[in-house]
Fold:
Amino acid sequence: MEIKPTEYKLRNCLTGREFEDTGWLLSDPEDSKPAMVRAIYGKKKIEIKDDSYGIYKFADWLPVQRILKGSCAPYTYKSKALAEKLGLSNLYVTFSGYWPDKKVSMNTCSFKETEAYSVCARLPKDNKRILVVASAGNTARAFARVCSDNDIPLVIAIPEENMKAMWFENPLKECVKVICSPCGSDYFDAIALANKLAGDENFLEEGGAKNVARRDGMGTTVLSAAQVIGKIPDAYFQAVGSGTGTIAAYEANLRLMDDGSYGSHIMKLIPSQNIPFTPMYDAWQADSRSLPPFDEDAERRKALQIKATVLSNRKPPYSVPGGLYDALKASNGSFKAATNDELTVACRMFEELEGIDIYSAAGVAVVSLEKALKNGEISRDTVVMLNVTGGGEKLFKKHFNYVNSRPDLIMSPEEDAVKVISAVRKLFE
Structure:
C-alpha cells in the first residue's frame, strides 16, 4: 500500500508568511522570532480513506512521504453509559489505545502512536540521520515501537524514573536505543539530555510541538470525531502536559472549517492538568500569556507527585505565537485541574461504565468534563468530544506477554555535550 507524498506549505503563525518545507523545518528560516509554523495543505476538502490505511486514512492532512506498517486510526463512538451517568445527550468518546471490541489496536495503548506514525512517515526513505525524541513515557513507547517495527534508527531520551512505561509486546530491534536521565529527574531533564545531541550531524531533532507532523498526527483525533459526528464538536476535553494535542485539535478544527462540510464554528477547548503540577492552568487562571516564574527543584518535586506522570512538561508551548494560549483565546476556552484522588475515581467510573481501562491522564479529562458540566460551561445538549488519549493497557497485558526494556545508557543532563554525543554514537557502532 502506497500514497503520494502530501502537498503542503508551511505558515509562520506570527507573520503569516508561507514557505516551502525544504526538509524537516521546525521554524521559519527567515524569521528568528519564536513562533509555531503550521502546515497548509493543498487539499482543502479532505478525502478520508478506508480503515485499511490506518492513520493514513487522513493522509490528505498529514505531512507524510510514505505509509509505515502497523498504524491504527483513533476510534470515535457515541457514549451511552457514561453519558447517562453525567447527564449528557451528545457525548462522543474518541479513544486511542487497545480495545479489540471496537477494532482499535494501538498496541502501545496511547494516542502518541498518532504522532509517531505521522512524524516517522515525514522522514524521507533515504534518511541517514538518527531521530532523537525526548519523552515522559508514552511518547517514548510509541516512537520506539513504530521505529523498531519499521527499521528507523532512533534515540529515546526518558527519565529513568519513567522506564516502567517502556514495555513492549516484542523486544526492541537494535535500531532503537534508550538513554535516561538519572532517578530523581523529570521530563525536562530528559529534554535537556536529548538536546545535547542536537549539534551533531548524525542526529536529527524530532522537534516536539514544533514538528507539524506531530501536531497533525494528534489532530486525527478531531478528524475521527468529525467523521463520526458529521460536524465539528462544540466542546473538546483533553488532559495536557505540553498542550500540543490541544493545539493540534484547534488546527484540525480550522481545516475542517475551511473544508466547509463539517460546520463553520470553533469548538470550545477545555484542557486540564494534574494537581499539584499545573503551570499552564495557573497561567490561564491569571489571564497571563506568560507562565508563572518557578523554582526548578520545586517544580520537579511537583512533577514527581502527580499520578498522571505524562503531564509533566515544565516548558510547554503555551506562550509562543500559535501555541496553547492563542488557541484557548480563539476558542473562548478554559482550563481545569484534577487531583490524584479525583482522577482515580474518574478512571474507575469510566472502566465500570464503558468497559475499558483508561490512563490517569484520560481520567483528568473526565474530571474536567464533570466540572465543566457542573459549573455551566457546557449544557446537557452540548456536542462534546472527550479525547481519551490512552487506555486498554490492562486488557493488552491480559492478551499478550510483554517485555520491559532497559536503558542502554544513563547520563546526567548536565554532562558535557561532547561526552553525550560520543557515548550515544558508540551505541550504534
